[in-house]
Amino acid sequence: MPQEKILIVEDSQEILDGLKEFFQEEDYDVNGVSTGDAALKIFYQYQPDLVFLDVMLPGLSGFEICGRIRELSDVPVIMYSALGSETEKVEAFEKGADDYIVKGTGMGEVIARVSAVIRRSNAVSVEPVDSYVDDVLNINYASQTIAVRGEQIDLTPTEYKLLTTLVHQKNRPIPADQLLHGVWGREYSTDELVKWHIGHLRRKIEIDPSSPKLIVTRRGYGYVYLPANEQAAA
């Protein structure tokens, strides 16, 4: 079985060399570059299974690189940065990042989260039905594509799994910690990931994300997907 490929983008040569050695020891095929321009060039040649991307880079920032990757590909992207505020994390997820790791996190946790993201990306959906359709969503489980009000939208593997998990349990609130473990895995411990991705999903499917009607928060219970046609019938 071929090794999974990780592209590391990090401007500190010392950190880049350390990360390359670490991931190689974990049996990944690794390539590394130190600038955003080089990252975009090699991305198309190397075709990685995951991009491990620093935020602060000379030239193009990590946020800009992530956004450009997302224009053409749903390959998983993990942002890796010394910047740990909620503002930076939200911006990363808005650009389409699958995860955000703050520098200084233990390498055991780093590898667990990298493995979890790749596993989500490679997961093949096995569904009892071929599709789900309501007045807003049309989900094709075979192709893992989603249309909203007739227009196909682009979702990352994480966003796709989060939305389909909610749809599977439609009209039933799912606690944030249950979503976290079901979508991201047991390696994760912060419900903030759920909140940020729910907010991003709302911007993609709601008419007014500030007043959501489809993905609704039930305080004390969790998040629930409410099909539009069933809302109208209620």
Concise account of the structure shown:
This protein has 234 residues and is α/β, with parallel strands linked by helices.
How many DSSP helices?
9
Can you tell me the CATH superfamily of the largest domain? Answer: Response regulator
Overall tally of structural domains: 2
CATH architecture descriptor of the largest domain: 3-Layer(aba) Sandwich
Mean pLDDT across all amino acids: 89
Helix and strand content put the structural class at alpha/beta
- The percent range for helix content is 40-55%
Which fold name fills CATH's third level, the topology of the largest domain?
Answer: Rossmann fold
The strand line-up of the biggest sheet is 2-1-3-4-5
Low-confidence stretches: none
DSSP strand (E) fraction?
Answer: 15-25%
Radius of gyration: 18 Å
Straight-line distance between termini: 52 Å
Major β-sheet, in short? 5 strands, parallel
| Strand/helix succession | EHEHEHEHEHEEEEHHHEEH
Shape: globular
What is the level 1 CATH name of the largest domain? Alpha Beta
How many extended strands?
Answer: 11
Structure overview:
- The mean pLDDT is 89.
- This protein is α/β, with parallel strands linked by helices and 234 residues long.
- It is built from nine helices and eleven strands.
- The chain is 43% helix and 20% strand.
- It has two domains: 5-122, Response regulator (Rossmann fold, 3-Layer(aba) Sandwich), CATH 3.40.50; 131-233, Orthogonal Bundle (Arc Repressor Mutant, subunit A), CATH 1.10.10.10.
- A hairpin with a 3-residue loop joins strand 6 and strand 7 (137-140).
- The strands form three sheets. Strands 2-1-3-4-5 form a five-stranded parallel sheet, with helices on both faces. A four-stranded antiparallel sheet has the order 6-7-8-9, with no helix packed on it.
- The longest helix has 16 residues, at 107-122.
